[in-house]
Amino acid sequence: MNGFLIAFAVSFGVVFVAELGDKSQLMALAFATRYRALPVLVGITLATTAVHLLSVAVGHGLGSAVPTGWIALVAAVAFIGFGAWTLRGDRLTPAERAKAERATGSAVLTSSVAFFLAELGDKTMLATITLATQYGWFGVWVGSTLGMVAADALAIVVGRKLGRLLPERTVQVGAAVLFFLFGGSLVVEAAGELTGRPAWAAVGDVLDHHTAGWLALGMAALVALLGAVGGRRLLRASPARREMGRAARVPGSPAWWGNLLYGTATVLGLVAPLLVGADVIDPITVFDDPGLVVIGAGLALLGVVLVLASQLELRRAGGPDPVLARTGLRSRMRNPGLTGIVLATAGVLVMVPTLVGVLAAVLLVVSVRIQVRAVREPMLAQLHGDEYVAYAARTGRYLPRLTSARS
């Protein structure tokens, strides 16, 4: 009995800690935003039980017989498919929605297959195999299974909380991005396994600073275009923004300075990656790394998605002033478009870190602060009075307010 308890305790602790921040825990969070928690947890438990039983029994033999590269590739295709499905969304009638709430089979099956594929060859499977060589197999099986289920249940609690607090479309896009990231990471892992060459070595050959410069230039140009289109659309949709547009024509006013700094930051943000791509200047050596290029591209894409989501909401806005919205992104944050632009600019800077890019980012942040604090908020407070004060109290300025405002 003591041997079982020791094996159980050690395995539970090791796997629980190993699972924190792992892709499986992030998967659990993503699935929890799409399905009810209990079916997802059942699916995780079934998959984990099967995988960890394989780990302590024939896991090592399975790893030798089936190349983990092919397993990772199959899992990558599945995750990309999950991301596309989540991003597309579903439209249900009330009767279908009620039926879907009662039906748990599809959620259990989907999460079971996804977690089974993800865990084959994962570090938690390898850790379980290692533990089984030192402790009793039954204690290791039970402990490692419950340790992983506990860690993923923690992620589900977080995911359900976010699902209640954030707008539905925001949660949907966020979950899809997670699935795409899982798929992309597994594609890289599979390429390394199947070619016998370190995956990042191949990525480094492709993502030199010239290529990164041109990719970053494309990102920066897209952000600049979206910023211009979004600004004009908001001017047409919001009476307050029209007042701000007139104020920006007065030389020396805060609105004028904000626009000037924003325009300068936009130009410098385009020049910096252009100079790197044309081999006129080199990125800052310390930060010139293919891994940072990938991270920067992810940040830039996330910023672009946020800007696009913000602009799509403007098209659907039915109220007299969309800045006072009670649904969607603007029901949680007052400046989602500006947040997306800053995030995308930061991503471009990470892709091609240069002093010119740093200057562009600093000027952008200063211009945003001026536009928001010295122009938008005072003018909106003057135009809407107590209604804007209440709106500001229940929303965040640049990031979503995750807690409800107290009455």
Characterization of this structure:
- Keywords: Membrane, Transmembrane, Transmembrane helix.
- The chain crosses the membrane at residues 37-58, 70-87, 135-158, 170-192, 212-235, 256-278, 290-309, 340-366.
- This is Ca2+/H+ antiporter (TMEM165/GDT1 family).
- There is one protein chain.
- With 407 residues, the chain is an all-alpha fold.
- It has 2 domains: 2-195; 204-394, Four Helix Bundle (Hemerythrin (Met), subunit A).
- It is built from 18 helices and no strands.
- The chain has helices spanning 2-19, 23-32, 37-57, 59-65, 68-88, 94-102, 105-119, 123-132, 137-165, 168-195, 199-206, 209-237, 239-247, 254-277, 290-316, 336-351, 355-384, 386-394.
- Helix 1 (2-19) runs parallel beside helix 9 and helix 14 packs antiparallel against helix 17.
- The longest helix is centred in the last third of the chain and has 30 residues, at 355-384.
- It starts with a helix and ends in a 13-residue tail after the last helix.
- The model is unreliable at 59-64 and 96-103 (pLDDT under 50).
